[in-house]
Amino acid sequence: MARTAILESTDEAVAGIEDGSTVLVGGFGLAGMPFDLIDALIRQGAKELTIVSNNAGNGEVGLAALLKAGRVRKVICSFPRQSDSYVFDELYLSGKLELEVVPQGNLAERMRAAGAGIGAFYSPTAVGTPLAEGKETREIDGRTYLLEYPIRGDYALVSAHRADRLGNLVYRKTARNFGPVMAAAATTTIAQVSSVVPTGELDPEAVVTPSIYVDRVVCVEARHYTVQGAR
Asked: Its domain of life (predicted)?
């Protein structure tokens, strides 16, 4: 019997996400953003969330809509500001939102470490910058490194291209981005996909996220946005 639940609606998929949860949200800007799951999370009502994502939202869709709804306490990301991040800008500058900036490579590796069961690792990124303040350092082969700890999520919301009935996932090109490491780093992984196919139809060599990392799958229609975040 498959451990992954194939659900009928996004509302059912995000049911049970608690106030104060740490939620890993896939996407590189708008590419691979799980728009439908985020919209369902807004309807669901969980608040005081810590969001881990590459960006802090575009326009007023997806993650930006969640921020605008006042459901997020803290954002951990590598690239919080761009030309259309005005929702984040307003909340952060008014003191309504906490921010932890993590260099992009470290962000990915800290989640990968969580999924791989690695207790911590040393990275040279951010040495000598304000981001190094308060972190343990170590010199290895004449180079200074910072000690970095895993980022684990209570939930991960990811967007994949297709799933099979067991919950194996394949992605579409750059929309993959952080999806695989987030799926492995979360206690509960929820994936929205464009289609669910019979078990055996996916090429095993093409499966990026095995079903063991996936708890809930919901099929949604593809949605497209301009770079400014308008439909």
From this structure: Bacteria
